[in-house]
């Protein structure tokens, strides 16, 4: 029988925080803030670029260029911090709100745009960057992440996988199976829950009565940790630690990044129907971007030049996104079938013929 590992049996309710809401460093000593200054300014750049592109995506949807978009406004620190500390060979398994993670990984915004336009599933170009396609069926990506982690383990690779999921996803049966499998097999997988307080119109207090999402880790026998999801350095430090543990054979970790979705669930949602302006204002005051800018200013790392550089890059990428998406042609419908398996199966071939015949009839 496998040896039963010793696990911590407590989870601190207080999230790890390295930068206080007013932008000053906290007294937290376990995680370092001493990253190279280029990395510190790059984190800022990525957060701002993410927010700017997020706005462009919303605009494109309003102009009828996209089918839908799920904004990550307010969650930039949680996504940029957690992805920036990983190796490029570590696999990301996103839900659908992870624009910041895609950008850190170097996925061109136009490819993300094609997925939201519905012209292209985003699979192959994402996978070149070790990023699985977006997952709309809630929680399914966690099983894929665990499977991929177990595969890496068996191949003797030292890559880790990160399953991005939301607070709502933690109520799904798939996520229970993924967490349990990962723990039992010591899979090098980090479960990164962005608790943005809402699952469409369902608030976190209706989602679970556990003390926190991170506390669920105790039942699975893995470490659980809460982190301030609006603090980019805390997210960086906590994910770096969890990834290092996974990489060195220490198994999975459940991280809960406490954050807030400042925008609607998607462009099809009106959040004023189910949440108060007071609540939004409370979280808007905890916005991760001005907080980190104040921190950089305090460290003497912010300058007008940095701001100009960031603005110029944002503008360039916004134009790149618009150019890639605007009036982009539909792709060949055959792609739906040819990208599933390396070789098309007889069942899929029959479906393809059926669709072709149907399309020919409608022409
Ligand atoms: C299996 C499944 N059930 C229901 C839905 C409908 N649905 C879409 S988003 C969502 C809420 C998810 O909330 P959360 O995991 O907190 O992620 P967030 O949208 O807040 O980032 C639901 C229930 C779905 N897409 N898939
Ligand atoms: Mg949520």
Tell me about this structure.
- The protein has helices spanning 37-62, 76-84, 99-104, 109-117, 123-128, 140-155, 173-184, 204-207, 216-220, 232-247, 277-284, 288-298, 304-325, 335-338, 346-362; strands spanning 91-93, 161-166, 189-195, 198-199, 202-203, 224-228, 253-258.
- The strands form two sheets. A five-stranded parallel sheet has the order 1-2-3-7-6, sandwiched between helices.
- The longest helix has 26 residues, at 37-62.
- It is globular.
- The protein has 15 helices and seven strands.
- The chain is 47% helix and 9% strand.
- The chain has two domains: 37-331, Thiamin diphosphate (ThDP)-binding fold, Pyr/PP domains (Rossmann fold); 333-363.
- The chain is of the alpha/beta class.
- The model has no long low-confidence stretch (mean pLDDT 95).
- Bound molecules: thiamine diphosphate and magnesium ion.
Which descriptors apply to this entry?
alpha/beta, Rossmann fold, 2 domains, five-stranded parallel β-sheet, 15 helices, binds magnesium ion, oxidoreductase activity, acting on the aldehyde or oxo group of donors, disulfide as acceptor, THDP-binding, DH_E1, thiamine pyrophosphate, magnesium ion binding
Strand percentage: 5-15%
CATH C-level of the largest domain: Alpha Beta
Helix/strand/pairing class, anyone? alpha/beta
CATH level-two architecture of the largest domain = 3-Layer(aba) Sandwich
Average pLDDT confidence is: 95
Radius of gyration: 21 Å
Counting structural domains, the number is: 2
Bound molecules: thiamine diphosphate, magnesium ion
Number of strands: 7
In the CATH hierarchy, what is the superfamily of the largest domain?
Answer: Thiamin diphosphate (ThDP)-binding fold, Pyr/PP domains
Cofactor: Mg(2+); thiamine diphosphate
Keywords: Oxidoreductase, Pyruvate, Thiamine pyrophosphate
Domain Dehydrogenase E1 component: 44-329
Pfam family, one: E1_dh
